[in-house]
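Reviewers of the previous submission asked for a worked example of the structure-prediction workflow described in the proposal, so we include one complete record here. The input consisted solely of the amino acid sequence. No template or homolog information was supplied to the procedure at any stage.
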Amino acid sequence: MLLALAACAKQSSAPSPPAVVAPPPTSEPITFAVTRAELTQGGWLKGTVTRGIASLTLDGKPVPVAPDGRFFVGFDRDAGPRATLNGRMPDGRGETAVLPIAPRAWEIEHVDIAQRPTIPSEEFQRIRAAELARIATARAKETGAQGWRQDFVWPAKGRISGRFGSQRIYRGTPGSYHSGIDIAPGAGTPFVAPADGVVILAATSPFTLEGKLLMIDHGAGLNSAFLHCSELLVREDETVRQGQVIGRVGATGRATGPHLHWSLKWREARLDPILFTGPMAPSS
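From that input alone, the workflow returned the following structure tokens.
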């Protein structure tokens, strides 16, 4: 059958670096095999398929497979306790793996006040609709980037001022959860590409919420977004390499102070950046 999948599951709110899953010594996969995974909410999985496979799906939705047979999938912050990966050969042979997705202990703050409703003006709604359309168009681009194969690096190092998945509950009413990780290395600090990719959006005119927004496609449906920048140092359609300086930290858009908000998304799933990098090592 498949691999020792359960060994990848984690429940810690401060996860360790991505785990490597070793295949069993005597089992040959029929259609696919998992090579590395973080089987937890906000996590991911990398694997390979057998030559000639007819289809690969995650929870019934097609999974893109690279020409060399490698693939990537992600699990949303609110993913349920299991996901189903299914592969089929043209002759009907196949296999199904039910992946255990471990829950996370999110940072939840209960606030004894009612959530203040906001009624956006017609002008804000018009501007915001155009911004969201640009973001959706950017995420729909297929650039052929290969950064998804790499071990990601931190785009900047500094104090972590906000963690992925954290959320406030206002008298029992959940607010929006934090969709990325916030790093506060100081205004103007340069940040780098965490992996190879292609720039799919470079908003030099600040968006209402994100400010100067930079988005990079890493391929296979995986992309990074960097919010609140003071300066963007790359342009749309530009190819970037891991470790290349791509912008500077700022406080544009809706931000209470200078910081870099870095978020990762695979299709519609919000992923935890720290599950790609491991804990931040001290600066030398």
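The chain is about 10% helix and 40% strand. We consider this example representative of the routine output the project will generate in years two and three.
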